[in-house]
Each structure stands twice: as C-alpha cells, then as structure tokens.
Design goal:
Distance between the termini: 60 Å
Largest sheet: 2 strands, antiparallel
Radius of gyration: 20 Å
Number of helices: 11
Number of strands: 2
Strand order of the largest sheet: 1-2
Order of helices and strands: HHHEEHHHHHHHH
Helix content: 55-70%
Strand content: under 5%
Length: 234
C-alpha cells in the first residue's frame, strides 16, 4: 500500500486522514502492522514529526496501538463505537454543561472566524445557511444543519482545537437525551425556528464582512437567547 505525498498545510491531519481512510477501506485490517515510521516518512515525503502527530491522534481515537520495540498495529476501524468510553462520557454531560460551555466558548470561536475566514470558508457557510433557510421555509428544523453551521464557523477560525471543541459539543448534544428533549419542545416550534434562522443569518453576515466585534456581539446574544429559549417556562 502506497500513500500520497502531502502538501505543507496541516501535514499531520492530511496524514491522519489518509491512514484512517486506508484502514477503513480494508487495506490494513485489525491486527495488521502499519509501515515503520521511516517508510511512512518516505511515502508521505515529510519528516518524522507530523508522522508521529498523526499516529498519536490515531492512537488517541482508538484506531491503532503501539507495542514497545515492535511497531504500530491496527486496533479498530471505528472511531466512535457506541460502547466506547467517549460515548459514555458524552451521555453523562448535562444540558447545563453544554449551554455553559457554548455561551463562553462560541463567541471566542467566531471572533477568530471573522478574522480568518477565507473565500472557501465563507462559501461553505453560505451554502449551509441557504440550506437552513430552505428548511425553515418548509417548516422544519434540522439539528444536523444547525450543527453543521456552527462546526463550519469553528473551521473558519483555522484553529484545530476550536474545531475539536465544537465537535465535542456537537457529540454531547447528539447523545444527551435531555438536551434533545428540551430542543424538541423549543427551537422546533415555528416562532423559535424563524428567530433561530434569522440569528444564524446575522452570524454569517458578520463573518462575511470580517466584522469581528459584531460577530462576537451577535454570537453572545444568540447564545443568551438559546439559553432563554431552552429554559423558558411554558
């Protein structure tokens, strides 16, 4: 199995994705040994540092494991099995935990998104907000579209840790049953659904304009409104 050389941008992530893809395609089966670091360096055309970063990320996600003095072996081809420790962890997070983190972290994320978003980022966000608009007009709220938009904002920050934090928040929301129950009786309602779309549209406009101050203000208000909607008495 030969890997493709990678470009200079975020080397370890490109390497991580290629190795993971080959494992999931079956080129390397569970129990198989991966090529040695030296061989991987030659195939990817990089130094050992990004190779080690990629392997560490794969090991952290439970895909591979290392044997001292022997090498690296495939452990799994599934990042998020339902019975994994991470899945159990996400299910234990409370709705209050989720909203508290979102209220404090997402304004910071969008600050950097407004600073750093490039044309590709903005085009992706426009596509997602258009999808949300069509769904809103059709009278439906699709959580996956909402998650996709916030994840896209994190990607536009060009900070991998922000992206991982947003992915963790999204996983927690998907697996926390009480969060889904509260969501289904609030933002899925027509009055909340329309307001929710308008707030997201303003967020994307601020990023398009690279207006950092306005982006932070709108996201802060959006998170506060989200909190009030989720815990509002009927």
């Amino acid at each position: 199995m030969n890997f493709n050389p990678v470009s200079s941008k975020k080397l370890y992530m490109q390497i991580y994705k290629q190795i993971l893809s080959e494992i999931q395609l079956g080129s390397f089966k569970i129990g198989d040994k991966l090529p040695a670091e030296r061989e991987l360096c030659e195939q990817f055309g990089v130094s050992r540092a990004p190779i080690r970063q990629a392997l560490s990320a794969l090991e952290l996600n439970g895909i591979i494991y290392s044997r001292q003095g022997e090498g690296v072996y495939v452990k799994s081809n599934n990042i998020t099995p339902e019975n994994s420790e991470s899945a159990i962890f996400f299910k234990s997070i409370s709705p209050e935990d989720i909203i508290e983190v979102r209220m404090n972290v997402e304004p910071l994320i969008i600050k950097f998104a407004a600073q750093r978003a490039n044309d590709e980022d903005i085009e992706e966000l426009r596509s997602t907000i258009k999808q949300m608009e069509e769904e809103t007009k059709a009278g439906v709220y699709v959580p996956e579209t909402d998650h996709k938009l916030h994840y896209g904002i994190a990607k536009a920050s060009h900070n991998d840790l922000f992206v991982n934090i947003m992915a963790a928040i999204s996983n927690a929301m998907k697996q926390q049953e009480m969060w889904k129950f509260i969501r289904d009786r609030t933002v899925t309602r027509p009055d909340y659904r329309d307001v929710n779309f308008k707030e997201h549209k303003l967020l994307i406009k601020a990023i398009e304009d690279h207006n950092e101050k306005e982006a932070v203000e709108i996201m802060t208000n959006h998170m506060q409104n989200l909190y009030e909607r989720y815990w509002k008495e009927d």
